[in-house]
Amino acid sequence: MVGTILITIIGGLIVNYFHYQYRIVMVGERDRLAVAANYLDMYFDTRLAGIKMLAAGPGVKSLEPELARSDLLAAMDVLGVANVAVYDRNSRLVAGLGQTSGAGELLPEQENNKYFQTVLSGEAVVSDRMVYGSLEHAYISILVPVTDGSDHVTGVLAAHVPVQEISKSVVQAQMPENQYIVVIDSNAQVIHHPRLVDLYPESASYKQQFTRMLNNTSGIMEFNSFLDGLDKVFIYTNLSSANWRMIMVMPLNALHARVLSKSREDAASFFFLAICLGLLYGVWCQAKRHEREQEQLRMERLVCVNQLAAGIAHEIRNPLTAIKGFIQLMARRNDRPPRAEHLDIIVDEIGRIDSLISEFQMLARPPKEPLFEKVNICKLLQDVTLLMEGQLHSKNAAVTVILPVLGCTTVGDICQLKQVFINLLKNAVEAVPYEGQVIVAISRQQGMVAITIEDNGNGIPREIVEKLGTPFFTTKECGTGLGLSVCYSIVQNHGGRIIVDSQVGKGTVFTVLLPVTGDESVLLTVDEQCRFGV
Q: pLDDT, tens digit, for every residue of 315-352?
């Protein structure tokens, strides 16, 4: 549940982050579009200002053909328009100049009527796109009122601007690759498009898309372009000088790539932070696991100490009985010096007690960090069997230790390895019947030191063998289930492993494999023999 909540929170943060970056990118694109719109607005503002100045000139205001023609001729090149003409209030042509583009009037009456009444009311107008004959002669009209001295509108001054001139102004706004500008008029007709020739005449679907943009005020829409079949984003804004809309078009995948590119540095920082947090979490988990292992080791050591205490007390009582007897014998014969052999026996028994107490103290000592050193396995097993004598006598069991011709050494923590073999030997003694047999042998297997502990007990079923070493799994009524788990952990930390071979009704063999040090020198310090029993 906690993991699910964390994943949900992290996923929500990532989604919100990318939405935030998306908004930042969109703000940048809107600013880029605003710059392009400003270019076009300035283009119209300068021409509107020039045409209004021309309309205020005495020649045009007089509505005299010769005088008006003189003013038009002087201003036409300055304004950069194709045609310019003056009309009276009845839309009759007073004077006109311009490039001939075919038969007909400079401003046909059917096109003039759409904007004429608006201009007569005193407003300047920028018309929609008009096509005179063919797309090559497409233009827009800028119309301003002509007034007399009392600000009464007496006529209309109209100038034609080819759409190619408008496109030149739009192209001045540099766009990134795969992005372009579209300009449409209030009738959803295309004024500027990189592929205007391919669009004209506009298809119904394309005009419908542009009409939806005219009716929508959100400033952004997504469509599938019929020109190339790509999903694209349309960002649009209004022009202040004309009732048009300027649209910036970019592929949707390019927008996503830009968002990802903008997020790259933050994503790298986030992943670096996530890796650091993951490493810290791993270190924390490892520390907690180490603490659990140490606690398991401590608990199992306490169990071993409690079980061994009774046997060691019995072992200490036997030497004390012998010492007490010899001392009492010496006290009765105080007139004679004690016999040397009696003193030797007393010294040996005291040494035996001291050895037992030393080994017991080492095992009962609180666990510390592992101290790895060279360990003589032969000597270690002798010490372990010494500690286990009490439990062996309780079952009258026999333990035979078979040593190699050459001593085998490994590198490890003596206390931890003793705990492993005490656990395994204790389990073997508990498994054998009364007067049972346990054989401990040291050999070389697979280039490692192999210590096998074999008993002639009832054996372990296969389904239980597979679960051995699992924490808190036990078949004993009073067991903790930690003994073998701790043994497996210790041996694994020493670079070794434990192998179990058991047959029901025949017995069990535990094999502990430990790395060998490569020291082949003779290390038989255990009574200088290759076999001893208890």
A: 676 677 767 776 776 777 677 777 676 677 677 677 76
Rounded CA gap, 189 and 212, in Å? 13
pLDDT at position 472 is 55
pLDDT value, residue 309: 66
The runs of H, that is alpha helices, within 56-199 are 58-62, 65-79, 109-120, 163-171, 196-199
List all residues 6 or more positions away from 503 whose beta carbon is below 8 Å from its beta carbon.
Answer: 459
Average pLDDT, the chain: 79
What SS3 class is residue 422?
Answer: helix
314, pLDDT greater than 80: no
Q: How far apart are CA 421 and CA 416, in angstroms?
A: 9
Reported in sequence order, the residue ranges of 77-167 that DSSP labels E, i.e. its strands, are 83-88, 93-98, 125-126, 130-131, 138-147, 153-162
d(CA 416, CA 301): 10
Q: Which two tokens stand for residue 330?
A: 């010496």
The pLDDT assigned to 135 comes to 80
pLDDT at 315: 60
Pairing relationship of beta strands 437-445 and 398-402 according to DSSP bridges: parallel
Q: Name 442's bridge partners.
A: 451
Sheet with 231-238, edge to edge strand ranges: 190-192, 180-184, 245-251, 231-238, 220-224
Q: What span, in angstroms and rounded, lies between the C-alpha atoms of 182 and 326?
A: 119
State residue 433's pLDDT score.
87
How many Å apart are CA 79 and CA 200, to the nearest integer? Answer: 28
27: left (phi over 0), alpha (psi -120 to 50) or beta: alpha
Strand, coil or helix: 534: coil
Q: How confident is the model over 42-79, as pLDDT tens digits?
A: 888 888 999 999 988 888 888 888 888 888 888 887 88
For the chain, the 3-state helix, strand and coil shares in percent, each to the nearest 5, are 50, 20, 30
Of 111-115, 145-149, 320-324, 328-332, where does mean pLDDT reach its minimum?
Answer: 111-115
**Residue 442 DSSP label:** E
Please give the single-letter amino acid code of residue 150: S
Residue in 106, 114, 104, 119 with CA at minimum distance from that of residue 156: 119
Rounded Cα distance, 198 and 234, in Å: 19
Cα angle, residue 299 at apex, residues 496 and 378 outer, rounded to 5°: 40
pTM here is 0.51
Using DSSP's 3-state secondary structure scheme, residue 391 falls into helix
The residue behind tokens 């988990």 is 285
Contact by Cβ (8 Å): 458, 505: yes
